[in-house]
Amino acid sequence: MTDLALLYGVLREAARKEGILSYEDLSRLYHEAGGEWHDEGAWEVPLATLNGKARAAGLPPLSALVTAKPRAEENFGPPVAGGFWGTPGVPPRPARVDDRLMIWMGFVNLAYRAVWPDELPGLA
After folding, report:
1. How does 85-106 read in b/e, with b if 16+ C-beta sit within 10 Å?
2. Cα–Cα distances in Å, from 45 out to 98, 113, 118?
3. Higher model confidence: residue 102 or residue 1?
4. What is the pTM of this model?
5. Does residue 105 fall inside a structural domain?
6. 3-state DSSP call for residue 22?
7. Strands, E, within the chain: which ranges?
8. What is the total count of domains within the chain?
9. What is the pLDDT of residue 85?
10. Residue 87 covered by a domain
11. What is the pLDDT of residues 4-50, one digit of tens each?
């Protein structure tokens, strides 16, 4: 079971540091913060749930900060796995690569600029 308050704390810190996390990074940081180990593919539902709570609080989706680990000499790109596209406050995954990049970067910038409270209502 994912501790959403703990997950929120990990992602809030990433947003404050203007970082992007791979699913692998998220698993490691969540575990180091005191949570159970999660495989990289286990984040879809917790991230979508967290997006819903953030949206209810008038905040952007934090899952924009989590994406696949880039290959050598590449940069992070828009998420391809679940937990972002089509979740609360995020449109369905666009067909065009350029559109995905532009929309995703917009959400990343919103996450960086948001004022994240220490605790997000509804996380227990």
Report:
1. bebebbeebeeeeeebeebbee
2. 26, 25, 22
3. 102
4. 0.93
5. yes
6. strand
7. 21-22, 66-67
8. 1
9. 95
10. yes
11. 999 999 999 999 999 999 999 999 999 999 989 998 889 999 999 99
